[in-house]
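I am sending you the entry underneath: sequence plus fold tokens. Let me know what the token row says about the fold:
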Amino acid sequence: SAASNAIAALGRIYSTLSHAQTILAKGADLAAEVDADYEALIKAASQKVEEAFNDDINTPVVIAQIFEMIRSFNASYKPGQKITPKIFYRAKAFTMWVNHIGRVMSLFVREPNTYLQALDNHLLAERNIVREDVDALVTARTEARSKKDFSKADEIRKKLDELKISVQDTPEGTVWEVQK
């Protein structure tokens, strides 16, 4: 449905903002290294957004540019990868750009992690899933992986997939979220 698509899109935007904030927090001691290619991408996206605003506030074009920047940002860094000054720069530039567009359009006003937690809670309730049950499954999967019982870990992951729960293993541990 259109509402489900809108929720998924908003979830993707907030998820990427949360991802960028994590990079900024973990790389806080780094000096950003200007990435000329990414800077050019932001400049081009900003130009398209400005043209869309001047074209009777063409919102679909603006949203399309936001998703182009999300694709580009997500392609540049995967969780667990070492945070370099260039990745730190991209996270900072991406966050500033999206927040600027958001302010202009009165969007993305909630703190990303708070929004995502509330959205996950809503989707869990809608699907009659208890958060603690998901936590228990994720913990059991992590324990099975640590014991090298990969068939059990895969079985649990399949169960999580059936519940529409995405699981991601990072060097910091396993994280999960409800598929949007």
